[in-house]
């Protein structure tokens, strides 16, 4: 009786690919460290200022990227209308705070009304997103994946048209109620606007984490993300859970819109397309579908842009978006699942 001996052989191609990925990652990281170190030595104050600008951008991108990653995580849809929802949030907040409430200068009343505007804009954008899910996406959940993707692009154009009629074809300026100026930390200066961004963004992110990890609805979201049919058999209302996810994503886009309108002070009808793509890159960088990854990706992209635009040894502002999409290309080649994502296999 002959014995059968089996062995497991790891294909050499897989080993080579893993080695190439590790070497490429180490080379890129080494280059980034050398670049940052040279800039820090050359001008510490400029380095700090660029970092603060990047942190501002990063928190904005993180809020928008979370909307992409939440929706993708639960129904595997890239909602390309999400960036335009952010644009409508910026327009709505400026209109509500300046035109309706008549507040156009800093002060205690301005801060109070700004908080009211944040809540109102979250409701406004969340409501629009839920409506989009019900009207445009719900019937296409079991359709081929290209169908909802094309629908999302179509909804993006519709929201852009609304923004064009509301904002006009040229950028519109809005006053800010945030205090001007800065305060010192040693030899460095920090703008008060950064404190305002942190004061709005951090509580929103903590609230989101609590909702997803500690509430009944958050557990339902995680169950639906794992398996819709199994969640339905366990008594989860799948339609309501998906609508709730769109509500949260829209609210986050609205929050980002308020921040942008107050810090930058300018809105445009195509604003969502530009920043939405960068936020999408942030979500992919962190690992789309991963909430922590979306925040990490947003902060990293923001810091990279801030350092590139504001440091002496950088490509400069005109290359800012090119740098972002170069990162996306490198990521797709060497680590397509993102920094915190997991490799997936196609079901057959």
Summarize the structure.
This protein is mainly alpha-helical and 348 residues long. The protein contains 12 helices and 4 strands, in the order H-H-H-H-H-E-E-E-H-H-H-H-E-H-H-H.
CATH class: Mainly Alpha
Beta content: under 5%
**Total beta-strand segments:** 4
Helices and strands: which structural class?
Answer: mainly alpha
Examine the coordinates and then state which fold CATH places here, giving the name of the CATH topology: ABC transporter involved in vitamin B12 uptake, BtuC
Query: Count the helices. How many?
Result: 12
Number of separate domains: 1
Task: Outline the low-pLDDT stretches.
Answer: 1-9
Mean pLDDT: 87
Helix percentage? over 70%
Using the alpha-carbon principal axes, give the shape: globular
Radius of gyration from the alpha-carbon trace, in angstroms: 22 Å
């Amino acid at each position: 009786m002959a014995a059968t001996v089996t062995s497991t052989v790891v294909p050499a191609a897989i080993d080579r690919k893993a080695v190439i990925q590790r070497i490429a990652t180490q080379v890129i990281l080494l280059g980034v460290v050398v670049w940052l170190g040279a800039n820090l030595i050359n001008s510490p104050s400029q380095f700090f200022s660029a970092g603060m600008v990047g942190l501002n951008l990063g928190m904005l991108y993180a809020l928008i990227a979370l909307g992409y990653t939440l929706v993708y995580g639960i129904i595997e849809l890239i909602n390309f209308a999400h960036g335009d929802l952010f644009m409508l949030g910026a327009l709505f907040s400026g209109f509500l705070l300046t035109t309706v409430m008549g507040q156009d200068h800093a002060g205690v009343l301005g801060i109070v009304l700004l908080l009211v505007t944040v809540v109102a804009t979250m409701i406004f954008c969340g409501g629009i997103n839920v409506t989009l899910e019900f009207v445009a996406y719900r019937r296409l959940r079991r359709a081929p994946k290209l169908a909802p993707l094309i629908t999302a692009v179509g909804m993006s154009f519709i929201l852009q048209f609304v923004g064009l009629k509301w904002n006009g074809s040229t950028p519109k300026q809005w006053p800010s109620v945030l205090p001007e100026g800065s305060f010192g930390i040693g030899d460095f200066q920090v703008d008060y606007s950064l404190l305002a961004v942190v004061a709005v963004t951090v509580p929103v992110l903590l609230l989101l984490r609590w909702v997803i990890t500690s509430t009944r609805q958050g557990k339902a979201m995680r169950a639906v993300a794992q398996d819709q049919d199994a969640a339905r058999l366990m008594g989860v209302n799948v339609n309501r859970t998906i609508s709730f996810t769109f509500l949260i994503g829209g609210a986050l886009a609205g929050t980002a819109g308020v921040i942008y309108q107050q810090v930058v002070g300018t809105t445009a009808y195509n604003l969502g397309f530009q920043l939405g793509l960068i936020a999408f890159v942030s979500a992919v960088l962190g690992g789309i579908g991963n909430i922590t990854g979306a925040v990490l990706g947003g902060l990293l992209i923001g810091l990279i842009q801030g350092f590139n635009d504001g440091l002496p040894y950088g490509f400069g502002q005109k290359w800012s978006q090119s740098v972002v999409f170069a990162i996306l290309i490198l990521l797709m080649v060497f680590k397509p699942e993102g920094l915190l994502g997991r490799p997936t296999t196609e079901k057959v």
